[in-house]
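Shall we go through a protein fold together, starting from nothing but its sequence? Please make up or recall a protein chain and show it to me in full. Go ahead whenever you are ready, and we will take it from there.
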Amino acid sequence: MHIVIVTGLSGAGKSTALRALEDYGFFCVDNMPLPVASQLVDWISGNGHVGQLAIAVDARQHEYLDSYRQELDRLVHQGHKVDVLYLDASDECLVRRFSTTRRRHPLSRDDLVEGISRDRQIMAELRGMADVIDTETLNPHQLKALIQDRYGHGEGTLSVVMLSFGFKHGLPREANLVFDVRFLRNPYFDPELTEHDGRDPRVASYVLDTPEAKSMLEHIETLLRFALPQFQREGKLYLTVAVGCTGGRHRSVAMVEELCRRMCGDWDALVKHRDLDLRT
C-alpha cells in the first residue's frame, strides 16, 4: 500500500494537502494517533480494498512522536511504500495566516508566536526525515496542483462536461464557461428539420456548414485548448462548458456534439443535452 504521512506546522497547509490527496483517490485520516494509525494500516492491508492511505500528523500528538521512526520502519519492513510530506512556512507567514483566518493555533493560549515556536520545536525531528515543502509563496490552488503532480497518478484528471441548453429555460447553474450560439442559422424554421434535433446529421449539417459556425467552433476549440490545462493546473477536477441557443434542441446540440468530437481524444469529456426533450 502507498502511505503518505502529511505533517508539518499548523497553518502550513496540511488540510489543503489532505483534501487534495482525497481528491486523487487516497483514503484520508486527519490527526490520528500513531499507535492507532498502525492498527488502521494493518486492518486496511488485510481488507485489501484500499491501495492509498494518507494520515495527517501534527504536534498535538507530541507524546507519540518519539515512536514515529520505529513506526515508519515497521511499515516499510511490511512492504508498504511510505512517503513523509512536511509542510513548512516562516513564522511571519504563519502569524499572518492565523491572524487572517481568526483561527486559534492548537498549541497557543494567548500568545500566537509562542505557540508557533513550540510547534516548530516539537516537529523539528520529524522535519529531518521528511520531504519538505515550503508553502509560504503558495496559495491553496498552487499547493493542490503540487500535490497532484506528486501523487495524482491520473486520479486528478480534469473531467469536462459539454452541456447544451436553451436560454429560454434558464442558464445552467453548474456552467463554468458559457457560449451563446443564437446568431447561427436556426433549423427550427425549416419544416423538414424542426422536429429533429442537433444530433441528426441533416440538422448538424444545416447548423455547422456555414462560415459563422465554422469560425465559432474554431474559436471555442482554441480557447478550450488553452484554458483546460490552466484549470487542471489549478487543481480543478470538474468543468462544465455550456453552449446555448434559444430552445436547446438544434444549434447548441449540434455545436456540443461537434466540440466533443474534436476534444474527446485529449480530455475526459462527457456530453449532456439538458433541454433536448423540452418543447415549451
The first helix runs from residue 14 to 23. Strands lie at 2-8, 27-30, 52-56, 81-88, 131-134, 159-166, 177-180, 238-245, 268-273.
